[in-house]
Amino acid sequence: MVTSPRDEARAATAGDAMAVVDTRGIVTGWSEGARLLTGYTAEEVTGRPAADLVDGDAGSAWRDLRRTGAAVMAVRHRDGRRTELALRICALAGADGQPQEHVITATPDEQARTLGELVFRQASVSMSVFDTQQRYLRMNDVACQVMGRPEAEFLHRYFPDTVEDAEHSRGFLHHLKKVVDTGQPVHYESWTRAPSGRRMHAWNIEMWPVRDDSGELIGTALAALDSSEQHWARQRLAMLNEAAAGIGTKLDVVHTARELAELVVPRLADFASVDLLDSVIQGEEPAVGAVDSAVELRRVAHHSLTTGVPEAVIHLGAVDVYPPQSPPARALATGDPVVSRTGEGDLDAWLARHDARHAALQDAGTAEFSLMAVPLVARGTTLGVAVLVRTLTPEAPDAFDRDDVSLAQELASRAAVCVDNARRYTRERTTALALQRSLLPQVVTGQAAVEAASRYLPALSQAGVGGDWFDVIPLSGTRVALVVGDVVGHGIHASVTMGRLRTAVWTLADVDLPPDELLTHLDDLVGHLAGDEHQAAGEIAATCLYAVYDPVSRRCTVAAAGHPPPVLRCPDGTVEVIEMSAGPMLGVGGLPFEATELELPEGAILALYTDGLVEARDFDVDAGTAELCAALAAPADSLEDVCDTVLRSLLPDTPVDDVALLVARTRALDADQVAVWDLPADPAQVGTARQRATEQLTRWGLDETAFVTELVVSELVTNAIRYGGAPIQLRLIRDRTLICEVSDASSTSPHLRRARIYDEGGRGLLLVAQLTERWGTRPSGTGKTIWAEQALPTG
């Protein structure tokens, strides 16, 4: 039997509730533990019968407790709820040895308390308890492991005194205080290095207020979950999503490599470089097979955390040779990523043999780093290698691990497909551009009729080069044809179609058809091309503008097939758009074309162009045409300057469509360079025609050509009188060549034939063809004109 309340109190476990009851059943003592357990204060209970606290038959409960010394009794809490308590009783004897008072203690369920303690201690997450002043009260085992020291070294210490002064520590303290200030739970996430380790961790922390039974806030508890794996998984997924949208935005090999380098820095590496095979950059098919010797790669992109990329010892565009044992060469040879770090033999040996890299490491203080070389492989073909470098420091000691390699492989694989797409596009575009340029006139030939300059700009778009073209075609009688056209679509097919149409225009121009008739024949040809290629009508379509200028009459005849009209700048500086019928596009079929004829002053500038010029910016065609007129009105020293001014004024930095521009300044032949005679349909006039021609040659100082000219005039005038009929006209033109033309009323064109031995005629045109450089016939308004050209004597 315990004889002293002090001895009983000493025997009671800390936190037990204790009450003293006299022999009358009146409460004479009430501990703080009893208050916490029942909610009643000492003032409310002392002096009252203990039976008032019992929920049920108090007498029976009191007898059981005194008989056994321990019993479970139902007690009514101050808030009215029923609570069953395990009670123990000890009698306090007086001087006479008789019980005077009883000490009743309520001990919490020992098993429950032990279980709760075990749960707290052995929890798999870090758990801690702070008081309202942010001082440590409790820490479980995981919290101690995270902090790297036992619980005893933290108890009752202020949190900021136990951690480094950093942003994440201040954020943690701010949220602890927030729980105390608001009395509400909070969620806090941080990315930090634990004091006990060197790795960075992502923490998800739940903080909540701790209250006593009276509802008073007495502290803050927290549970911190290390969510680093989930954090990295989200980061990797975010990088892969960004790679899907951010790598390969342009069909450009170098740009795609730059996008890869900029994506991985800084989230995966501190420095990244991308080196490719030269064949890939040029759009060619790279060699297939393992790399078993030194490999030559060209640096196309690199990026760094540090401005200026000081880690790069190979300049952009430069070539470096990687020995077989270097990580990049090994990655290319095996097709698998190679991970290494300073201190490993192969990496250190490679760096030591490369003077520039060795010097760079010396300048950097030979810092430790982790390196990963990832091959760029697409469709079974190795295109190059990406090298990622991560500097290892006490603050960031983590070398590349398996998860990093997996992520880098995925990123490199996506980038490699984009690089290969860009390579294929480069090859196709280069082929189409070479084809197109080979089909365009390399030099605009000097003409007696016009002075010309031109520009052709392929589009810098993913659609590929288009089918724009232009031509300056010399015609008989010093005339010239100016042509510009545009095949609908892009790529090699458009270029090939353009070449076929350009050849057809040359052929039809050689026949000397009027512009409207030429476009009619060209329209039929496009229809045949569509049928030959088993395509629906109209699937091959093109626009074309064809103009013929005669420097003798200064007349210009223009016809268009769905093409923008030309713009004319007169010698006085005024600029106007020539009003004409645009006509249907080539390939529509069945609709007529209309020709417009106008007289041009000498020195006028005629601008022919494709729609890519006036639709290049964010304005409509009318606004673009107005801009073109304004650009043509600007002063310029030459036609080359005119072209440059027009392109500079109308085109954006990256035009989305091909542009062809042809500008021509008109010339006019002087009256003394042309001689014209009208002849009656009389065979006797043949001699008169020869005499007049000879006299004109003498006035021009071309007596050396008289013999051939007399033969040509004699033959052509004779044929005109015999087969053509009036009106008959003879015309001589002196320009770069001597041109003899005879017109008659017949539309029937002569042709060469082989005369038999006894034939009296049939040898005239054969003789003309042999004595002149070229000859031909063209239709006129009332019949035809036969012409022949002779070279003028030099010197």
Task: Please describe what this structure looks like.
- The protein has 795 residues and is α+β, with helices and mostly antiparallel strands.
- Strands 13-12-11-16-15-14 form a six-stranded antiparallel beta sheet, with helices on both faces. The chain has a five-stranded antiparallel beta sheet with strand order 2-1-5-4-3, with helices on both faces. It has a five-stranded antiparallel beta sheet with strand order 7-6-10-9-8, with helices on both faces.
- It is 34% helix and 28% strand.
- The N and C termini lie far apart (150 Å).
In short:
With 795 residues, this protein is of the alpha+beta class.
Highlighted features:
34% helix, alpha+beta, 6-stranded antiparallel sheet, 795 residues, 5-stranded antiparallel sheet, disordered N terminus, elongated
Explain the layout of strands and helices.
Layout: H1 5-11, E1 17-22, E2 27-30, H2 32-38, H3 42-45, H4 58-68, E3 70-76, E4 82-93, E5 99-106, H5 110-122, E6 126-130, E7 136-139, H6 141-147, H7 167-182, E8 186-193, E9 200-211, E10 217-226, H8 228-246, H9 253-264, E11 271-276, H10 278-281, E12 295-304, E13 319-322, H11 327-334, E14 338-341, H12 345-353, H13 355-363, E15 369-378, E16 381-391, H14 402-439, E17 450-457, E18 466-474, E19 480-490, H15 492-510, H16 515-532, E20 542-550, E21 555-561, E22 567-569, E23 575-577, E24 595-599, E25 605-609, H17 611-614, H18 621-633, H19 639-650, E26 659-666, E27 674-679, H20 685-700, H21 706-724, E28 728-734, E29 737-744, H22 764-771, E30 774-779, E31 784-791
